[in-house]
Backbone:
């Protein structure tokens, strides 16, 4: 039944763990929609025929002026209809929450949209263009942003999409059922080559994914049809990947973040990054917020928007100064410091990083 | 064909409204008397000519787009041209056809007559609004020649603020267009409040008046927001103002909120007038009062109101919080309910009627299917988890074309046929009318039904080239588009031919009770010899035509 309806409705493969459920709602909604439209039209057509003027003139008893007694029937139908719509909404919203909230143990990968390609950065240091490698059978969380205009990351086989916005981070998660290749399309119009901003997801068996992360090219026998021509050449994980945490340290040093923030819990001008990620902090002027990717990005791009209570309004904006890849790397750095307990007086780990003398290389 | 037609022909002037005065077409002559006229009927005709012209232009753009999509690779235009073409198609269709068409043509023509008035409240503003409209069209189409714009009709930032194209002019053009809309809306609202004939209380008014009233309210509240947002985009584009552009600390999602805060209600601006037309036609041809006058009248206001609280359903994957998405999804369901009430009431009105079947009724039948299907798919896309897959794919394209082309265009065609005798005093050829209507319907279904499937299969919208697996559905769609084009052209020809060779209509060829039919067809310059005094509702089908006329007549 599933296969039959899926084929009739031209839906692609159900490659992610949520696709089946979403499709079930899809079938129900589409069948009800088509049925409803046909029913109304048939009833209308039938009335047109039955109460046609010539017939009514022959049999005037058919004529009912001002058919107001239909109101009750109407009320019942409207209430029933409303009940149906609301039930779609309840299920749809429930599924939406499932799509939106990633499981705790999800693997994280950073995605940057750029006219007209997708760039992927893996916390372990690998980076690829247009081809996203993921392990099958494990939840994967994508953290998306854009370098220029709005793009939208869409994998039809997963029934998933999410906009990638410049200056913001948004997230998406999925779990691929089987190893294979799946198309990535951009669904937010982004300029001349919008329609060729293609990519593909390659889901590997988990062990092979691990080996790939170590710099080994994946086997050629990844299943699945491809009829996409990725718009940029794919580029394998480098032989010696530099982890994103390490890249983050470098970026934080270069951009002068570490002049105010510390990594080991020592108090300084800005909040220390040790143990900061994931906590809830009080905000100046009341309220509080969770320190997550979105808040961290906001603090870099628009620092005065929400100030951590007790700190001065001194942080400059890094908007346009810092590349999205660096933003992601800094976030990774902060995540790696989650469990660092403040150790006042301890030596700062960034001592290991060469801070360039000049401010070149900042762009 | 229809019984009513023949009746009317046999009795050229059964109501004795006579033409002591020449009709408005002949009352004055010379180009000046047209271009500077303050007569709402002549202004309506000027709009008619312009709007049909723009529909033709928009249609040509559409055919170019569809023809390009015949093959997966480039067919005959390049990507840049394609992108500018779909922008211009959208802009032309939305602001130069869908929004103005029914109100400015048929609303302008019949609203004062329906109210028993000699003209709108502000005839000069009415004329001015026409020229402002024309100016906006010149700016928009001129911008196309001067570099064009390739952002789509939604002008999403930061693409629009960084695009090197004539976005600024487009913004200004739409702003000017909005001014014209607002002028018309104010005119309609004031006229409805102040110019109703003696005895014409709110519950006696024709339902078309209610629909125009609801539309005007939406225009009044929503259009300024859009006008300002696009001016801000223009400023961002030209001077780097930085409200929406993240490079300057702006927020692109804020723009989407502002845009949809207008443009969601705007889709109802496009379709509410159609509801009015359909109500008139259903009652007139089934010779029955509406099954529930109040249900139809008030649901227009309901749509106008709730339509303002659902804009977020365009942004489920744009970074809206889960909570907001939930609220907007739930509120969207209410809009659908108001539309459903209307649909059921129309169908119930048919029941027990005495239905003469003519071209407008056939359009009504098409409307019923296309609108209900389009509306139900609207509920489908308002269901969040499903919309995640459908958003920005051809499914959405199909959804809104079902409603806007299937709803508003069929409504427009129905109105064009229905009020044709009123406007020109002649009858079109019924057989050709029915035939072209069937062609339009079949063409339409072939154009847009495959697009639902394309959306399911995952084809994103605004694609110049596409993966090969989507091809055959695209071919179907393109074929349908050509058939639709031919159908529309033939419908137009049929009406043009009837202008000169059609049979004389008589004042009330359909046997309607609505008030515009108590004047001569075509009406004289001032509509009525004396202000009428109305002692019945617009749907008094229990009275014979003569008695009904007596009760709604100048005394
Ligand atoms: C009067 C009838 C309607 C009209 C004229 C209309 C028109 C439109 C238009 C023009 C769009 C596309 C905008 C764009 O992205 O370019 C659209 C999208 C949408 N409509 Fe409707 N619509 C109508 C009824 C409904 C109803 C009753 C619902 C829901 C209950 C609905 C829900 C939606 C949703 C959720 C979208 C966004 C889909 C997406 O972008 O993913 N619509 N509609
Ligand atoms: Cu893109």
Residues:
């Amino acid at each position: 039944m599933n296969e039959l309806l899926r084929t009739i409705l031209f839906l692609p493969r159900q490659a992610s763990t949520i696709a089946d459920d979403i499709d079930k709602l899809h079938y129900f909604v589409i069948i009800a929609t088509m049925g409803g439209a046909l029913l109304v039209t048939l009833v209308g057509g039938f009335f047109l025929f039955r109460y046609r003027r010539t017939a009514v003139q022959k049999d005037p008893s058919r004529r009912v002026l001002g058919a107001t007694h239909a109101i009750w029937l109407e009320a019942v139908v409207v209430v029933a209809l409303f009940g149906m719509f609301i039930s779609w909404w309840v299920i749809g919203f429930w599924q939406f929450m499932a799509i939106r909230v990633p499981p705790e143990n999800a693997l994280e990968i950073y995605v940057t949209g750029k006219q007209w390609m997708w760039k992927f950065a893996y916390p372990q240091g690998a980076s690829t263009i247009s081809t996203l490698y993921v392990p099958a059978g494990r939840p994967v969380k994508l953290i998306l942003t854009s370098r220029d205009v709005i793009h939208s990351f869409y994998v039809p086989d997963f029934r998933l999409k999410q906009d990638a916005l410049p200056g913001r981070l948004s997230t998406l998660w999925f779990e691929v059922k089987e190893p294979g290749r799946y198309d990535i399309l951009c669904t937010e119009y982004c300029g001349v080559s919008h329609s060729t901003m293609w990519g593909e997801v390659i889901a590997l068996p988990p062990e092979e994914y691990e080996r790939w992360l170590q710099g080994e090219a994946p086997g050629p026998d990844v299943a699945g049809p491809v009829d996409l021509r990725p718009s940029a050449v794919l580029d394998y994980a480098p032989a010696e990947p530099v982890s994103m945490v390490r890249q983050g340290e470098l970026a934080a040093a270069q951009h002068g973040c570490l002049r105010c923030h510390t990594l080991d819990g020592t108090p300084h001008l800005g909040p220390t990054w040790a143990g900061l990620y994931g906590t809830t902090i009080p905000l100046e002027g009341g309220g509080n917020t969770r320190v997550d990717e979105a808040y961290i990005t906001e603090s870099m791009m628009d620092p005065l928007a929400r100030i951590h209570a007790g700190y001065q309004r001194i942080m400059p904006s890094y908007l346009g100064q810092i590349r999205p890849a660096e933003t992601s790397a800094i976030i990774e750095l902060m995540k790696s410091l989650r469990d660092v307990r403040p150790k006042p007086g301890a030596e700062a780990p960034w001592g290991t990083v060469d801070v360039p003398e000049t401010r070149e290389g900042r762009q | 064909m229809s019984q009513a037609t023949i009746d009317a022909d046999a009795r050229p002037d059964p109501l004795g409204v006579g033409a002591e005065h020449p009709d408005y077409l002949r009352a004055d002559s010379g180009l000046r008397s047209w271009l500077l006229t303050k007569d709402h009927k002549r202004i309506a005709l000027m709009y008619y000519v312009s709007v049909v012209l723009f529909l033709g232009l928009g249609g040509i753009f559409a055919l170019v787009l569809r023809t390009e999509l015949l093959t997966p690779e480039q067919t005959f235009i390049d990507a840049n041209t394609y992108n500018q073409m779909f922008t211009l198609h959208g802009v032309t269709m939305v602001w130069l056809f869908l929004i103005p068409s029914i109100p400015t043509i048929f609303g302008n023509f019949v609203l004062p007559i329906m109210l028993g008035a000699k003209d709108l409240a502000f005839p000069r503003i009415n004329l001015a609004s026409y020229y402002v409209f024309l100016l906006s069209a010149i700016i928009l189409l001129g911008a196309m020649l001067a570099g064009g714009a390739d952002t789509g009709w939604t002008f999403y930032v930061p693409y629009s603020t960084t695009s090197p194209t004539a976005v600024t002019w487009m913004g200004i053009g739409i702003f000017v267009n909005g001014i014209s809309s607002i002028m018309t809306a104010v005119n309609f609202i004031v006229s409805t409040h102040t110019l109703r004939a003696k005895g014409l209380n709110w519950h006696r008014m024709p339902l078309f008046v209610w629909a125009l009233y609801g539309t005007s309210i939406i225009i009044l509240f929503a259009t300024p927001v859009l006008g300002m947002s696009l001016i801000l985009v223009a400023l961002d584009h030209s001077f780097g103002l930085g409200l929406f552009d993240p490079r300057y600390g702006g927020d692109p999602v804020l723009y989407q909120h502002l845009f949809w805060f207008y443009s969601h209600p705007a889709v109802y601006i496009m379709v509410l007038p159609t509801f009015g037309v359909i109500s008139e036609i259903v009652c007139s041809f089934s010779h029955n009062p509406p099954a529930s006058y109040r249900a139809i009248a008030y649901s227009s206001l309901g749509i106008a109101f709730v339509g303002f609280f659902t804009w977020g359903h365009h942004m489920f994957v744009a970074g809206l919080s889960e909570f907001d998405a939930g609220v907007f999804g739930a509120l969207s369901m209410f809009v659908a309910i108001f539309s459903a009430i209307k649909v059921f009431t129309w169908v119930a009105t048919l029941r027990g009627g005495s239905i003469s079947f003519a071209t407008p009724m056939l359009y009504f039948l098409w409307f019923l299917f296309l609108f209900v299907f389009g509306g139900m798919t609207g509920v489908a896309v308002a269901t969040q988890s499903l919309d995640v897959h459908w958003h920005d794919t051809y499914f959405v394209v199909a959804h809104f074309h079902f409603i806007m082309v299937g709803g508003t265009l069929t409504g427009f065609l129905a109105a064009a046929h229905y009020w044709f005798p009123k406007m020109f005093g002649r009858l079109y050829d019924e057989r050709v009318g029915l035939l072209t209507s069937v062609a339009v319907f079949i063409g339409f279904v072939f154009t847009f039904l495959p697009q639902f499937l394309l959306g399911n299969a995952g084809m994103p919208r605004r694609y110049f080239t596409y993966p090969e697996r989507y091809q055959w559905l695209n071919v179907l769609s393109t074929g349908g588009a050509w058939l639709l084009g031919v159908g529309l052209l033939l419908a137009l020809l049929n009406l043009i031919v009837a202008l000169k060779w059609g049979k004389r209509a008589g004042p009330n060829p359909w046997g309607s009770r609505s008030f515009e039919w108590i004047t001569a067809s075509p009406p004289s310059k001032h509509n009525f010899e004396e202000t009428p005094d109305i002692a019945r509702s617009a749907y008094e089908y229990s009275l014979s035509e003569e008695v009904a006329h007596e009760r709604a007549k100048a005394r």
User: Anything to note?
Assistant: Chain B has one domain: 3-16+34-554.
